[in-house]
Write a structure and sequence with these properties.
Layout: E1 14-19, H1 30-46, E2 50-56, E3 60-66, H2 73-93, E4 105-108, H3 111-123, H4 125-128, H5 143-148, H6 159-162, H7 168-180, H8 185-196, H9 204-214
Antiparallel strand pairs: 1-3, 1-4, 2-3
Protein name: Transposase
GO molecular function: DNA binding; transposase activity
Organism: Sedimenticola thiotaurini
C-alpha cells in the first residue's frame, strides 16, 4: 500500500512527529536530550523556521514549526537535526544503523482554530503517558520556557499565543488555565489522527484554503467537530 504523501504549506504551522526506529528509545541520558535541542535551535535559526512548541519523549519527538516561505525547509530541518542525533548516538553507544523510523509525519495546522490546541496536546504528552502529573514537571518540553520565559530560548511567539492577552503575565495566566483544562477526548483523537495520517488539523474551510494555496487536492478522511462559525 503506497504511503500517503505529506502536505507542506508555506507560512503555516505544522505538527511534526518522528519516532525512533522500531519504537526504540532515542533519548536515554540528559546529554541526549540537550544535544538534540542544541541542534534544533541551530538549524531552525539557520533555516528561518519558527518553533511554536516541542516535546521530546523517550522514543519520539513532537515539534510545532512554521517554515515561512519555503515549506521544504522542514524536511531539511529534520534531515540535519536527526542526522546529527543518529551520528552522536551511534558514536556514544558504539553502534551503527538508523536511529529513526523512515519518514516523519506532518500535519499543517489551522492557526486561529487549532494552534494553541496543538501546543497543549504536545506539552501534555508526558502527562498522558503517566511520566509526570503536571506539564511543568517535565523538563523536555516547551511548557517550562513558555511559562517562565527563560532557559533554552527556543520558542518563537506564535500570533495565536500573543493574542491571548496584551501582557506577558496575563498570556501565561490564560495559557496555563487552558492547559489545566486538559485535552478533550475528541480533540485529542482528531489532532493525533491528523498527524499520523499526514492530514490537515483544521476545518473544511482550512482544507479548501490550503488546496487553493498549493494547487493540489488534499485528501481528508473525516474531520473534527465543526466550529460555531461553520454551523
Amino acid at each position: 500500500m503506497p504511503r500517503k504523501a505529506r502536505v507542506l504549506v508555506p507560512n503555516c504551522p505544522h505538527h511534526i512527529v518522528q519516532r525512533g526506529h522500531n519504537k526504540k528509545a532515542v533519548f536515554v541520558t540528559d546529554d541526549d536530550y540537550n544535544y538534540y535541542l542544541s541542534n534544533l535551535k541551530e538549524w531552525k535559526e539557520e533555516l528561518g523556521i519558527k518553533l511554536y512548541g516541542w516535546c521530546l519523549m523517550t522514543n519520539h519527538i513532537h515539534l510545532i514549526v512554521d517554515p515561512g516561505d519555503e515549506p521544504r525547509s522542514l524536511s531539511l530541518l529534520m534531515k540535519r537535526v536527526n542526522g546529527r542525533q543518529t551520528a552522536y548516538v551511534n558514536k556514544v553507544e558504539g553502534r551503527s544503523g538508523s536511529l529513526w523510523e523512515g519518514r516523519y509525519k506532518a500535519s499543517p495546522i489551522q492557526m486561529d482554530n487549532y494552534l494553541l490546541s496543538c501546543c497543549r496536546y504536545v506539552e501534555l504528552n508526558p502527562v498522558r503517558a503517566g511520566m509526570v502529573e503536571k506539564a511543568e514537571e517535565y523538563p523536555w518540553s516547551s511548557y517550562q520556557e513558555r511559562m517562565q520565559g527563560s532557559g533554552r530560548r527556543l520558542l518563537d511567539n506564535a500570533p495565536a499565543y500573543m493574542g491571548l492577552a496584551e501582557s506577558t503575565r496575563y498570556r501565561r495566566v490564560r495559557y496555563e488555565a487552558f492547559v489545566r483544562q486538559g485535552v478533550p477526548v475528541k480533540e485529542s483523537l482528531f489532532i493525533g489522527e491528523s498527524v499520523m495520517r499526514n492530514q490537515l488539523t483544521g476545518n473544511q474551510r482550512f482544507v479548501d484554503e490550503v488546496e487553493q494555496r498549493i494547487g493540489i487536492r488534499v485528501e481528508q478522511r473525516g474531520r473534527g467537530r465543526p466550529r460555531k462559525d461553520e454551523k
